[in-house]
Amino acid sequence: MTITSTSLTAPDRMDLPFRGEPIHPTLVSFAIAYFTAALVTDLAYWQTAAVLWETFSDWLITAGLVTTGLAVVAFVIDLVLGKRSRALAWPHAVGYALAVLLSLLNAFVHSRDGYTAVVPTGLALSGLVVVILLITGWAGRALIARRPEGADL
User: Fold this and answer.
1) Which site in 9, 36, 80, 138 is 20 to 30 Å from 114, CA atoms measured?
2) What pTM, to 2 d.p., does this model score?
3) Largest Cα–Cα distance in the chain?
4) Which residues, at least 6 apart from 128, have a Cβ–Cβ distance to it below 8 Å?
């Protein structure tokens, strides 16, 4: 296979940098994955009472909060640089903010000692965060489907 100069400059290559595209939606996706994984490890702790799962939950919630902080910084930078050409989906943003605040409370609940660090309050908070993220994602998809130009999420 030979590499030509046109194949190196093709705009559909995956290793090209994001030009003009905001980076914060990617970071938000990682935070959602961390918070969802925390629910899974809380469920595993509830069933097994192995401290390993509680520790995983602590780290996953912390990673989700750190990634959310990075997404906020990236959002502000994107906003200052003018990379936001479409309207912000406010219901989506409010839903994510509520999920992050509940996750912060969940981090404090998980910092307690013993079985009650996760069951029942931590598990309920993790479940509530995932439900809010699912509803927020569904609302965001509805916004994108209604608007011909889409919406920034």
Assistant:
1) 36
2) 0.79
3) 62
4) 102
